Amino acid sequence: MCGIAGWVSFGTDLTQRREVIDAMTETMACRGPDDSGTWVRPNVALGHRRLAIIDLPGGRQPMAEAGLAAMVYSGEAYNFTELRAELSRRGHKFETDSDTEVVLHGYLEWGDEVVDHLNGMYAFAIWDERDEKLVMIRDRMGIKPFYYYPTPDGVLFGSEPKAILANPLARKVVDTDGLRELMAMTKAPGWSLWKGMHEVGPGTIVTVDRSGIRTRTYWKLDAKQHTDDQETTVERVRELMTDIVHRQLIADVPRCVLLSGGLDSSAVTGLAAARLAEQGEQLRTFSVDFLGQEDNFKPDEVRDTPDSPYIRDVANLVGSAHQDVVLNPAELSDPDVRRKVLTARDIPAGLGDMDTSLYLLFKAIRAESTVALSGESADEVFGGYRWFHDEAAVNSGTFPWLAFRMGLTNERETLLREDVRQKLDLPGYIADQYSSAVAQVEYLDGESEQDRKMRTVCNLHLTRFVRMLLDRKDRASMAVGLEVRVPFCDHRLVEYVYNTPWSLKTFDGREKSLLRHATEHVLPASVRDRVKSPYPSTQDPGYAAALQQQVKEALSERDNPVFSLVDRDWLHRVSEVDPVTMSSAQRTGLDRALDLYHWFDLYSPELQLD
């Protein structure tokens, strides 16, 4: 797991611009605290920061085969052992035990069709010296971030926008389209907040040579007939989950599991604990909690119960060495922590304590472990969110997570000035994005109306919603040098479950039926029967009160650029609301306003709103 950066220029001698690639690479230091390296030739400069996971002494980068190709690589190929054996049979010689060298030799053997052989999470760039071209490749689900910025004579690229923005050719401009998507929460394909910058799409190859930039999609969600019966389907999910977790436990550094007490993380915990027990090891598990949350918990629109009792049940069942990271309102609302999160994400996402708590959890874990397995993405794969099962949301004619009533997604533009709202026209933008997303969904001949409708909902979550969450988790974890792996994003599992009929996904009358029954042998009864509960958020009114105080300080700055976007009167009114009775939408608005306030200070963006 690492951070990569690079610059291709067919009109500049980059050997005279080493200080620029060094600066771009240095922005990735948190992603790769263990080592740094650059590789510079007249038309290309590659930079790499390394977090050592496999073959600690042998996996240094950039990695090159003289006269053939050089590569910078971020991520993990979980099947690298099998690939190396196959490549060895084809005559390849290896000098290290790293998966990086396997991927490089895979490219030399198969070209960009190496992607058809990879199982993992990855973002890598290969400079092919033979053809003078750059090949950028991202994993199928978009687990690892990857951005590029076309220039008049080439391209800039990096794991994160900050690497690209460190190059003087890149401008920190945010236009109307960038701001629209930030506020809309639809995850438009290829979107970057920064004008002129693009994501390498999940399952996509971007090639750059003297003739220009070309893209090719090598993987997408295809509609396929599901022929397995219920028992066979459950057994297949169990086999896949077991194999995936076993593969993703491979590392030469300490590992752990993120345990929330929900079905998803508990299933991963149970499978991982059983595997490590076979090897004579005890699993470590970590959870985030809030001071007084269990004793004072109140059900809300998406959470019925506190996590702690279920976490204890899982830890006791599997015998893990468990640690709770308990946070208080002062830590969650600390402006310095907020600024660290903003720097990690490069965007003012406005998720407040759900972002700061994730960052602080990962920071605490990093003191004990370098690799963590997560239950992220199970809800998108198996249909777990409440809005999957809410008829109004499913039939709303828009993205279900936007139609479902909750503070995180509703009333997203209330904090904005009226003139900004009119320029953005978020309802129109969201409608256009929804139409575009639905148009990409493939269906089977003869599918029932219900199956077509739920295939659409599942597709939207796997191609849009999950990518927001994966980016959030990657940025927060890599900001502290922690690698988080996501077993539920294994493309074999995603393809298989995506094509099971909705009746099979809910065959016991509940959400995530397939996952529950496939992993019940490693679950306590309490978790097996628990209703879906998302990532926790503090209910302490002290957090809202702290936000209000910070907002009041911001309001005293008459000329702060944040007020070119934020409605000062709205902010003033909410800053006076009783924090005990403040709505979740109002608190989210305060978080968004404070994110924007600090983002302007950190990035000094140039706004171009037409």
Strand content: 15-25%
CATH homologous superfamily label of the largest domain: HUPs
Strand count, sense and closure of the main sheet?
A: 6 strands, antiparallel
Mean pLDDT: 96
User: What is Rg?
Assistant: 24 Å
* Count of distinct strands: 19
Distance between the termini: 40 Å
Tell me, what's the shape? globular
Write the CATH architecture name of the largest domain: 3-Layer(aba) Sandwich
Helix content: 40-55%
Structural class: alpha/beta
Number of helices, where a helix is a run of at least 4 consecutive DSSP H or I residues: 25
Structural features, described:
The chain has about 600 residues and is α/β, with parallel strands linked by helices. It folds into three domains: about 5-215, 4-Layer Sandwich (Glutamine Phosphoribosylpyrophosphate, subunit 1, domain 1), CATH 3.60.20; about 230-530, Rossmann fold, CATH 3.40.50; about 540-605, no CATH class. It is about 40% helix and about 15% strand. It has a six-stranded antiparallel β-sheet with strand order 2-3-1-9-8-11. A six-stranded antiparallel β-sheet has the order 4-5-6-7-12-13, with helices on one face. The mean pLDDT is about 95. It is an enzyme of class 6 (ligase). It comes from Amycolatopsis orientalis.
List keywords for this structure.
alpha/beta, Rossmann fold, 610 residues, 25 helices, six-stranded antiparallel beta sheet, globular, 19 strands, Glutamine Phosphoribosylpyrophosphate, subunit 1, domain 1, 3 domains
